[in-house]
């Protein structure tokens, strides 16, 4: 296991981030607190009238509550405490807990999953009816989870169960089939403060920078996918200096990359959206070009633009969206391979905080309309800058 530095000061003491932990390969959706990979305490409760158990002509309602801690984002919640209270009939879990697991993602904000009783060998659940005690063995419980809000996971679990009831005559027991179902609401806290709790299609993986003379981008485990962190959207800004100076801004930047091992370099592919170029409707086309981020130390490095042969980044201005679809641009900047700076001065728990910049930006400006500023030609001036916050997942 490798020593990961710069995964963040906020949680370092609580999480002992000096040592990376093993992260299993993801097979379903994950329970995630605060949109990061780290720990949380969670509390769940049944909703509506409560947990409903139906069997042999009886309906037993109980209030279900459970709580526990997760060391990191996880595909399964295994509570340390589960209780059934305010039941229609005295009910005992006999050492069992409901263990909840995430499953496949469905429609936006909706996820499948399952629940089971654990640990192995516990139970059964018993219900005391006075003149007999029913033994309950839930099986094949499915759960549907929904992110109605960013702070709470809601869900519905339902499934079948076998019920053993003593025969009213002779010896032995009657086996009946029945059902068990309940609405769910699960919230989370970290260090006593409420934090957002959600289901996510991918399992977050902590990423950071290994320190020392040979600084490297690193992750808790590999392979790992790299993307723009949820909720992070500072503008990317080009300052273009021709015979006039003007700005090109993009409100949204989604980065994607992948790592199979620790490395000094990380190649990221951006997708820009919400762009304005010189006050006009804009777009940025990467045309296969990428940014190569290379560390020279824990705090600095280089940002390089690399492109397939004959390709460049295009920063274009249009009259409107319809003109973009027809490629009727008013003016454009073409930006080829060149090198700038990289700073890693931002500290985030489990994320990569990076700032890319290119000074004395070299580009070719083509002006086709008087609506655009500047004159056509090749220029060296202005700059590019964008602050990134990158997250890992698998």
What report would you give on this structure?
The chain has 394 residues and is mainly beta. It has 2 domains: 28-200; 204-393. It contains 2 helices and 31 strands. The protein has helices at 12-15, 321-325, and strands at 30-33, 38-55, 58-72, 76-77, 81-85, 91-92, 97-105, 110-118, 125-128, 133-146, 153-166, 173-190, 193-195, 197-200, 204-205, 207-210, 216-219, 224-228, 236-241, 245-259, 265-277, 280-285, 290-295, 300-306, 313-318, 329-335, 339-343, 352-359, 362-367, 377-380, 382-393. The strands form 4 sheets. The chain has a 15-stranded antiparallel β-sheet that branches. Strands 2, 3, 4, 5, 6, 7, 8, 9, 10, 11, 12 and 13 form a 12-stranded antiparallel β-sheet that branches. Strands 1-14 form a two-stranded antiparallel sheet. The longest helix is centred in the C-terminal third of the chain and has 5 residues, at 321-325. The radius of gyration is 28 Å and the shape is elongated. It starts with 11 loop residues before the first helix and ends with a strand. Mean pLDDT is 88; it is low at 1-26.
**Average of the residue pLDDT scores:** 88
Which structural category fits the helices and strands?
mainly beta
DSSP strand (E) fraction?
over 45%
Portion in helices: under 10%
**Helical stretch count?**
2
Main sheet record: 15 strands, antiparallel
Work out the radius of gyration: 28 Å
Low-pLDDT residue spans: 1-26
Shape estimate: elongated
Write down the domain tally. 2
Distance between the termini: 18 Å
- Tally the beta strands: 31
């Amino acid at each position: 296991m490798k020593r990961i530095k710069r995964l963040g000061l906020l949680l370092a003491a609580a999480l002992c981030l000096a040592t990376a932990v093993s992260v299993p390969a993801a097979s379903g959706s994950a329970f995630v607190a605060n949109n990061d990979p780290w720990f949380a305490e969670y509390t769940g409760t049944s909703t509506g009238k409560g947990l409903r158990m139906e069997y042999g002509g009886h309906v037993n309602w109980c209030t279900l509550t459970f709580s526990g801690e997760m060391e990191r984002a996880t595909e399964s919640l295994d509570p340390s405490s589960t209780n059934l209270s305010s039941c229609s009939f005295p009910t005992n879990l006999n050492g069992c807990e409901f263990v909840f697991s995430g499953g496949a993602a469905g429609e936006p904000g909706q996820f499948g999953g399952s629940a089971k009783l654990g640990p192995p060998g516990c139970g059964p659940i018993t219900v005391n009816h006075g003149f007999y005690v029913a033994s309950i063995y839930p099986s094949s419980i499915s759960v549907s989870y929904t992110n109605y809000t960013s702070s709470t996971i809601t869900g519905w679990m339902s499934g079948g169960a076998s019920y053993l009831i003593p025969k009213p005559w002779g010896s032995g027991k009657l086996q009946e089939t029945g059902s068990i179902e309940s609405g769910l609401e699960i919230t989370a806290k970290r260090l006593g403060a409420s934090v957002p709790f959600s289901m996510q299609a991918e399992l977050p993986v902590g990423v950071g920078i290994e320190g020392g003379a040979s600084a490297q981008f690193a992750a808790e485990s590999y392979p790992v996918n790299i993307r723009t962190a949820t909720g992070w959207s500072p503008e990317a800004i080009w300052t273009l200096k021709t015979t006039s100076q003007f700005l090109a801004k993009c409100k949204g930047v989604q980065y994607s990359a992948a790592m199979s091992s620790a490395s000094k370099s990380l190649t990221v592919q951006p997708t820009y959206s919400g762009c304005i170029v010189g006050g006009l409707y804009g777009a940025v086309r990467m045309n296969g070009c990428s940014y190569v981020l290379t560390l020279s130390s824990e705090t600095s490095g280089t940002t390089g633009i690399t492109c397939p042969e004959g390709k460049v980044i295009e920063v274009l201005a249009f009259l409107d969206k319809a003109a973009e679809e027809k490629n009727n641009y008013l003016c454009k900047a073409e930006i080829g391979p060149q090198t700038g700076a990289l700073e890693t001065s931002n500290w985030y728990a489990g994320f990569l905080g990076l700032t890319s910049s290119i000074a004395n930006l070299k580009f070719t400006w083509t002006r086709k309309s008087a609506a655009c500023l500047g004159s056509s030609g090749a220029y060296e001036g202005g700059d590019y800058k964008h602050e990134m916050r990158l997250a890992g997942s698998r």
